[in-house]
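Morning run. Coffee first, then this:
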Amino acid sequence: MADPKGFMTTPRQDWPRRPVEERVRDWDEVYVPGALLPIVSKQADRCMDCGIPFCHDACPLGNLIPEWNDLVSREDWRAAADRLHATNNFPEFTGRLCPAPCEAGCVLAINQPAVTIKNVECAIADRAWEDGFAQPRPPDRLSGRTVAVIGSGPTGLAAAQQLTRAGHTVAVYEKDDRIGGLMRYGIPAFKMEKHHLERRIEQMRAEGTKFRTSTAVGRDVGAAELRSRYDAVVIATGATAWRELPVPGRELGGIQQAMEYLPLANRVGEGDLQASPMSAAGKHVVIVGGGDTGADCLGTAVREGAASVTQLDIYAQPCAERDEDAEPWPTYPKIYRLSAAHEEARDLETAPAADADARLFAASTLRFTGDADGHVRSLHLTEVDAGRRPLPGTGRELSADLVLLALGFSGPDRGDGLIDQLGLATEPRGTITRDAGFATNSPGVFAAGDAARGQSLIVWAIAEGRAVAAAVDRYLTGSSRLPAPISPYDRPMTV
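And here it is:
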């Protein structure tokens, strides 16, 4: 604890964002380059060394937050990077993409603004790359055992890196043409530029991990055949079966799933397309769904030059402060948060009729109507009560040339045949069944991440990857020294 009074004398200061008018003209990250390091050491000083750090419990990775806060406050970046990487394979991902449940669990957050844990984490990760602390760590010797990892999102990459470092020969199979899963084609570059992903992939290649792109297991290569070629298989395909909106007019043109829309914008950034065939340019856009995916669509549509963008959230507008009775500290509260995309929409007034920023809260879609060519032109909605029941007399109509459905995901997509070919048991909600050791009912086949847990956060995805790696290592060798931060049955803290 470098400054015992830091939490009393230093106010919270977040990484500043670039001006809205500037950042919406490009796809670069929204934060001011170079503006984090000058403030982060004093922010780390605010860590209280509280004795019982609930930030540990709030983070499924078990990040050693007070330790690396102390090291950053002393500007010992090498030691801080070592402590951070001891629990997290990809802190530059979580430092940009995680909603930071650790900050909700910060003891300081009981009655003050929490420590900027996420910013400190990101600063350590970036400094580690700049100073050469993130070197490849190939194994000293090979085990002679082989593992196939299906899916290259954060779970698959974390599992592959851990197993490679343990000495196993690992190949990652990805159905898309590039590695990264949703981090590649689902997350917009303004939230995380892709060079962060590229350098981790190169690190993994240098360690010995093999990558097989444009290979959908179950379709391009049989799942049973793949299983026969490897000593173990890890399924980390994510939860990509999107939820539908079964209302009248859904068949009209111009109504797309968010994960049909977002990858095209990312492919423009990758240089694959000159312009997205679903571009929001000049269109009235309505996003159905109030979560992070909807916010990603919002920021993307704004950058593409939409005429207007409105986001519908079926839940009531949250309060600005934690409800101590319903969601007491240290649980992660549902409060009103202003993402970078919502800040942009608010300042640019993309949806003048919205309740706040671009969002209409407590709003439920009733139907769509279209023109003579079968293309959507309007969305009809109603306000709802806390039980999602329509409130009489609250019907409204919004102009809509492009509707994006961001309603979440129910489990892994079964269209490629992977689950059926391996005869895997599934839960009623569609996720893959597994036991306490992450093993499925098919011998030698393990399941991790959203494919088995269900839609979750990136920190849970990485924790699942690390834990399943320990389980596979134990299956292959009889024991394991790899860390297993969570079990398949662990869940976020709730009341």
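Residues 458-477 form the longest helix (20 residues). Good start to the day.
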